[in-house]
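hey so u asked for the seq, here:
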Amino acid sequence: MIYFFSSKTYFTCLVLALISQVLLSQEDVVIYAKAEPNRLFTMPASSDYFTAHFENCIYRIRPNGIVTKYYLNKPDSVSFKLNLSDKMGIERADVYHIGKSLLIAFGEDDGESGSSKVMKFNLETLKNEWTFSGLSFNLSRIMIHKNCIYVASNGIIAKLDFDTGKVLFRSNWLYDSAKNSFNSFSDIVIKQDTVYFISKNSRSNRIDEVVFNDLTNTIISIDK
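ran it, structure tokens below
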């Protein structure tokens, strides 16, 4: 079992632990952990951090982008840094183990504006292999299917090549301020060659949806 929690010196927050395993091949299983901290304390501070627990290691992620990996079976630790935008601090993070790869998807903000990024590392060397920064705030959970990554944020859906980070598709601005549609995406569902980017509208309580053709990399329909 995987636990992900945030520890704050200023307050005790409710922890949501989620576990997902998606079979990519006989060797590659996606192990996922997530927690969302209170947005009041998002700027870099040495006493604020998030901790992701896996079977043989722990990741401690600080809002200033410093990540420390602690190994449970030995006293060693190693640190590396996430590519933050100028004056931004991490306000949430998702951590994924996939075979020999490490994915960290995170939201960043400066108290007034926000964006999101996805970074891929070699799981053993922790060398950064690529960074995707074409997302806004309200980062969705990542879906991985057939060596592709599907991700969404406020008004944006995207499909990336898992190995290279190449953008295979990125939508134009989908957010509808009049209807408050696609402010965030709660789920990404794949059925055969169709991908459903699902958004629960907080204003109308209806389910908005972008339907995507995975073969042609085109949007089939937008329901809002």
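The mean pLDDT is 82. The chain has no helices and 19 strands.
lmk if thats what u needed
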